[in-house]
Design goal:
Layout lengths: L1 E4 L3 H11 L4 E4 L11 H16 L3 E10 L6 E2 L2 H7 L2 H9 L5 E11 L12 H10 L15 E11 L14 E3 L2 E2 L5 H7 L1 H19 L1
Parallel strand pairs: 1-2, 1-3
Antiparallel strand pairs: 3-4, 3-5, 5-6, 6-7, 7-8
Length: 213
């Protein structure tokens, strides 16, 4: 059974659309979210911690809004910025810029405690640096990170004044193909979303992995 580490049941439903009957359940686990400019490092650290807690295959995601004219801000700090500054303030920052291009990005991190035929994720070094900065024992288990497989998805768009009643987070100010994410139906949003694109890649790989296991 695959455990999707999230408090959002909607993410589990979306994952089920891509994984079908492969079995996905919600795992409400408050893993340590390290401070990093890299979504992959954050998700991989969470996946390793969640797997050690659950003892079963886990999937963790981390996502953010990256505004080109703001050097990628708010990026991995999107949730914190939404809670502290608010979505409309982010729009006002972007409004002052001539270039309002942005992208939603998502990284899924999978860990089941077993090695992969492909190389482990390329961010072990970042994880070790984060552990050292946090004062972790270099002889502890975290010094040899569990293999993690990463899957990335992104959708490009433009920031616009808030429109739409649906969605959540930055959806009202992110326009893709003529509509904001908040104006899209759930089906249309899932079809183009950064998380959906990452899930599509993961689903294809995961079915192959299960077939040979």
């Amino acid at each position: 059974m695959l455990r999707y580490v999230t408090t959002n049941a909607g993410k589990v439903r979306e994952a089920t659309e891509y994984l079908g009957d492969d079995g996905v359940t919600q795992f409400d686990f408050d893993y340590t979210e390290i401070q990093s400019d890299d979504l992959g490092a954050i998700a991989a650290h969470g996946a390793r911690e969640a797997h050690r807690e659950a003892g079963e295959p886990v999937l963790v995601d981390d996502a953010g809004l990256f505004v080109e004219a703001l050097a990628g801000f708010p990026g991995p700090y999107s949730s914190y910025v939404e809670d502290t500054l608010g979505v409309e303030r982010v729009w006002r920052l972007a409004e002052a810029e001539e270039d309002r291009r942005a992208s939603f990005r998502c990284v899924l991190a999978y860990c089941d405690g077993e090695p992969f035929r492909a190389s482990p994720d390329p961010i072990d070094r970042d994880d070790r640096a984060a552990a050292a900065a946090a004062g972790a024992d270099p002889n502890a288990e975290e010094a040899e990170p569990l293999p993690v497989k990463l899957f990335e998805g992104a959708v490009r768009g433009t920031l616009v004044p808030p429109r739409g009643e649906g969605g959540f987070g930055y959806d009202p100010i992110f326009e893709h193909d003529g509509a904001t994410m908040a104006e899209m139906s759930t089906e249309r949003k899932n079809a183009v979303s950064h998380r959906g694109r990452a899930l599509a890649k993961f689903g294809e790989w995961y079915r192959e992995r299960r077939a040979v296991s």
